[in-house]
Design a protein that fits this description.
Blueprint: H1 4-13, E1 24-29, E2 37-44, H2 51-66, E3 78-83, H3 131-141, E4 147-152, E5 159-161, E6 165-168, H4 173-184, E7 228-229, E8 240-241, H5 258-271, E9 275-279, E10 285-287, E11 292-298, E12 306-312, E13 315-316, E14 323-326, E15 336-343, H6 353-357, E16 359-366, E17 374-377, E18 381-383, E19 388-393, E20 398-401, E21 409-412, E22 418-425, E23 432-441, E24 447-450, E25 454-455, E26 460-465, E27 469-474, E28 478-480, E29 484-487, E30 496-503, E31 509-516, E32 518-519, E33 532-535, E34 542-547, E35 553-558, E36 564-570, E37 573-577, E38 583-591, E39 594-602
Parallel strand pairs: 2-3, 2-4, 4-6, 10-16, 18-23, 25-32
Antiparallel strand pairs: 1-3, 5-6, 7-8, 9-11, 11-14, 12-13, 12-15, 15-16, 17-19, 19-21, 20-22, 22-23, 24-26, 26-29, 27-28, 27-30, 30-31, 33-34, 34-37, 35-36, 35-38, 38-39
Helix pairs in contact: 1-3, 2-4
Length: 603
């Protein structure tokens, strides 16, 4: 369905006269364009001589995007391409008419391929004006696009999101690009208040403030997620968002919040079918004579969260891998084998989503097994919580079980090692009996912990126990396979949930989590004296905090372990009385989007 529009679109536009072919560069190609999200990067304001610069900027953005959550987990779900369209002039049009126009930016019109321009009323709102040119380039050169990003050749800050994502080459350009893609791809709204008329229902914006029914109710127990007003007066006070100052859709220095990550993850999973191959073919009836293996070619995220559930004639099988083998004894003359594939990612907590996103593969089977009473067990050694299916064949009468069931096949979930008996009763002949023993091993007593909280620059120490093998997975595609693991030179981006799969000597596994918190406050050394002055330093029983910045400022004081000691909201100047032991402390100052940190000694 996702390709239908682009194909019809190409048919309509390819008739245009003088359709032009351009060089299309493949930046990353993880698979077929028919089952990938195809991102096409265009450039505006790059001359023919600047095409190498455009190619470099396009690849740098693709690299940044693919390292960003949640895209990094699904990087093999994306293809990236760049189309070289040289402009006659270098740069971008600047009308200079907006009240917030940058005073040091030259005003003037540039002859560029897509007519990119800063806004006439909101200066940072950079858009293209030649949409028909963009449409024809895509139709002729790459009609199977899913997401279009336009890089504009200027270092001044700006961008926009809509049907396409546009951003400049400002030093925060990559963050701008991912923010704008939040609009274009994920249909997210800004979490800063853009002004009257910019309020509408979106995954991260709503008029509803009822915790029981709000769109992100499943995330309200998550740190930093709540129900926040966009403002305290006018139309802004009517609208609500899930985070305050903690999301990329509000501040470029933040990651996407949990609610926006969920929406983005769901959009990715709408596009892609994780089942890329099926063996044998599902057409016709598969004969199991001699046994048969059934396989799924899966497109797996990293870490892999795909869950496979196999069932035979309505009974769930123990196997959860991407292939399964059946014997003739397990199959009747009209058996049905079903594989259901679902992405169990913890990045989404959508209600009832499993049914909507489960991909189902079905095979019709037959077996020429003779009428000899036989008992097959799908798996005879289980881990606690597992299940096994016991199936009889060849009984010409009634099959009953030691547990009282009357059926040819039963699924059991024993909590300890258990023996099962199947009886075949045929009128006029002695009852036949078959036995099966299922051994059950307990799950490992798995543990996971860390020695945090941490500050930037310190070493994260992860510890797990209860098994013989370990598989860690965490933020920024982190992985390790030892009980104890460390991450030196910690960054804020290392914060998050770390999972470890603990496996014992019996092959039984249990996955546990530990949350790592990395506070940026102790990453000092970036103090800007123009923003804030904290004195005296060293101090004894009080400090004075002054800033020339207007509006509300916040100063937070921490000890060397990263523990918050006090928070003070003030305007321009405040005095703080200290009742803390002598030592070295850190402070974090913020005013709007400006932030800085520093150290202060108490004696």
């Amino acid at each position: 369905m996702k390709k239908l529009f682009t194909i019809l679109f190409a048919v309509c536009l390819s008739c245009a006269a003088f359709a032009q072919k351009f060089q299309v560069d493949t930046l990353y190609k993880s698979g077929s364009i028919d089952n990938r999200i195809n991102v096409v990067i265009l450039g505006d304001g790059f001359t023919a001589d600047e095409m190498p610069k455009f190619a470099r900027e396009a690849r740098e953005f693709a690299d940044y995007f693919l390292a960003y959550q949640p895209y990094t987990r699904y990087r093999n779900y994306f293809n990236f391409f760049a189309i070289q369209t040289p402009s006659n002039e270098s740069g971008v049009t600047n009308p200079g008419t907006s009240p917030d126009a940058y005073p040091d930016q030259p005003v003037g019109k540039k002859d560029t391929f897509y007519g990119a321009s800063f806004g006439s009323y909101i200066h940072r709102l950079v858009t293209i004006t030649k949409y028909e040119v963009k449409d024809e380039v895509l139709a002729v050169n790459f009609p199977s696009f899913d997401l279009v990003v336009v890089l504009v050749n200027t270092t001044f800050y700006g961008g926009s999101g809509g049907s396409i994502a546009v951003h400049t080459l400002h030093d925060q350009a990559n963050g701008i690009g991912v923010h704008e893609i939040g609009h274009t791809f994920s249909h997210l709204n800004d979490e800063y208040w853009a002004g009257p008329g910019y309020g509408w229902e979106a995954p991260n914006m709503t008029l509803n403030n009822n915790p029981a029914t709000i769109k992100w109710k499943n995330w309200l127990n998550e740190p930093d997620i709540g129900i926040y007003q966009h403002g305290f007066s006018g139309e802004a006070a009517l609208w609500h968002k899930p985070a305050s100052g903690k999301c990329l859709m509000e501040y470029l220095i933040q990651e996407l919040c949990a609610v926006c990550r969920e929406q983005t993850t769901e959009r990715i999973l709408q596009y892609i079918n994780p089942v890329e191959g099926i063996e044998p073919d599902t057409a016709g009836i598969v004969d199991i004579e001699g046994g048969k293996t059934f396989s799924l070619g899966l497109l797996k995220p990293n870490p892999n969260t795909l869950r496979v559930k196999w069932s035979l004639d309505g009974k769930i099988l123990e196997n959860t891998g991407d292939h399964i083998s059946l014997t003739p004894a397990q199959v009747t003359e009209s058996s049905i084998l079903i594989a259901m594939v679902f992405d169990s990612t913890t990045m989404s907590r959508k209600d009832s989503i499993e049914k909507l996103r489960t991909r189902t593969v079905k095979w019709s089977l037959k077996s020429n097994q003779s009428n000899i009473f036989q008992l097959a067990v799908s798996i005879d050694t289980l881990c606690a919580g597992g299940e096994s299916t016991l199936t009889t064949t060849g009984c010409r009468g009634t099959v009953t079980w030691s547990g009282g069931e009357s059926a040819k096949s039963i699924t059991v979930r024993p909590d300890k090692t258990t023996a099962y008996s199947a009886y075949c009763a045929v009128e006029g002949v002695p009852t036949l009996k078959l036995d099966a023993l299922i051994t059950v091993h307990p799950l490992p007593a798995a543990t996971a912990s860390n020695s945090g909280p941490y500050f930037e620059g310190s070493t994260i120490e992860l510890t797990a126990g209860g098994g013989v093998t370990y598989a860690w997975a965490g933020p920024l595609t982190y992985s390790a396979n030892t009980a104890s693991a460390s991450i030196p030179d910690a960054k804020v981006a290392n914060s998050g949930i770390y999972e470890v799969k603990v496996t014992d000597v019996n092959g039984c596994s249990k996955t546990v989590q530990t949350e790592v918190k990395v506070d940026p406050v102790l990453a000092v050394g970036n103090q800007n004296e123009e923003w804030v002055k904290v004195s005296p330093n060293p101090a004894e029983d009080h400090i004075s905090v002054e800033t020339a910045l207007p509006g509300e400022s916040i100063l937070v004081l921490y000890d060397q372990s990263g523990r918050k000691l006090l928070t003070r909201l003030f305007t321009l100047k405040t005095e703080i009385t200290l009742r803390i032991p002598a030592g070295l402390y850190a402070y974090h100052f913020s005013n709007g989007t400006r932030e800085t940190s520093g150290k202060i000694a108490i004696r």
